[in-house]
Design a protein that fits this description.
about 150 residues; alpha+beta; Alpha-D-Glucose-1,6-Bisphosphate, Chain A, domain 4; 7-stranded antiparallel beta sheet; 3 helices; 7 strands; about 30% helix; globular
């Protein structure tokens, strides 16, 4: 099992940040274009506990693949977890948390993941997967900084 962790302070209230991250349609905006992210079916207005969201995404070496996540452990305005039910990972649990801090909101992404393919998955993590996650979350950091600029 691996962990990817990132914190970011945004110049907006937790309520404003929650309003943005709780809209599944905004995933398109915070996902790099080369991943060809696409929600399948009707785009839900807001997330809720027990909700399933299906999408397709381009993954290095695997090409376009389906991904089904379930929204779990939602604490309105503060945190939620999305867990992969079907997708490219053997395990994917992503906790999104918001906390009010001086000058805005501290947003945390804490991901626990495991890879399929045994020894090949273990080799892929440092060579491909870890760097790709960093690239994705660096992109998100940049988009969110522009979305909630310092005043």
């Amino acid at each position: 099992m691996y962990r990817f962790f990132q914190k970011q302070t945004l110049s907006a209230s937790p309520e404003k940040v929650w309003d943005f991250i709780s809209l599944p349609g905004n995933l398109n905006e915070i996902t790099p274009k080369d991943m060809e992210f696409e929600i399948i079916g009707e785009v839900p207005e807001r997330i809720f506990a027990g909700q399933f969201i299906e999408y397709r995404v381009k993954v290095p070496l695997l090409g376009r693949t389906s991904w089904l996540t379930e929204i779990k452990y939602l604490d309105e305005g503060k945190s939620f977890v999305d867990e992969q039910r079907v997708g490219p990972y053997k395990l994917w649990v992503h906790r999104h948390s918001l906390e009010a801090v001086e000058g805005g909101t501290e947003m945390t992404d804490d991901i626990r993941y495991a890879l399929p393919f045994g020894v090949f998955g273990k080799l892929a993590n440092p060579l491909i997967v870890r760097g790709n996650l960093k690239r994705i979350f660096d992109f998100r950091r940049e988009v969110l900084s522009r979305t909630f600029p310092k005043s």
